[in-house]
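User: I'll paste a sequence; please echo it back and then give the predicted structure.

Assistant: Echoing your sequence first, then the prediction.
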Amino acid sequence: MKQKFTILFDLDGTLVDTAPDLMHAHNHVMKKFGYPTKSTEEIRNLVGKGAGAMLGRSIWGQAKKEFGKVQDEKIKKEMVQDFIDFYGKNIVNESKLINGVREFLIWSKDNNISMAVCTNKQEHLAIDLLKKIGIYDFFEYVAGHNTFDYCKPDPRHLTSVIEILNGDIKKSLMVGDSETDANAAKAAGVPVILLEDGYTEKNTTEIYHNHLVKDFIGIEKIVSKYL
């Protein structure tokens, strides 16, 4: 049997614009613990390394001395748990699919492409979001922040999923929106399609990529060259 082609997708900022709902969860926690809130645009720069990293970077950004106040591991855990609980209950209030996603997933399915999600979101939250937004059934596997003992930018987050799908690194592709995705793909030896307006502090032109796209409209032209 001919080896299937595999596409791995990041989730936040790649398949789904989740920033508004992440912002509400973030601000809920920050108000409760006495830290400044953020706008949706500011949140886009903090997403991608998991809830704990997001809250830490948010507070760190205010001032280093403020971050020092949250040295207490118990409080940090409480903040992260509060964030996950609130976000889990409000996961698709304002989140929307990125332009062209559904059409591209249908096209990929029609072309016998294996698809999986590799995200630094908690696995149960990723699955819940994909189900509620109506695209879960397109994917053969969902790997979250806590699925393995490692996560992006560790390349094993990608290579393990390719292995689970009985895929081939040389017949695989990553679609992401951040430096975390790009670095994982580069280290795994997988070409990466990068979305321009990603959830990242860096300008996307400075991030490693093989192709740069605005959204999923017409992305099948790029993928067809790899098939």
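Residues 73-89 form the longest helix (17 residues). Residues 62-68 have pLDDT under 50 and may be disordered.
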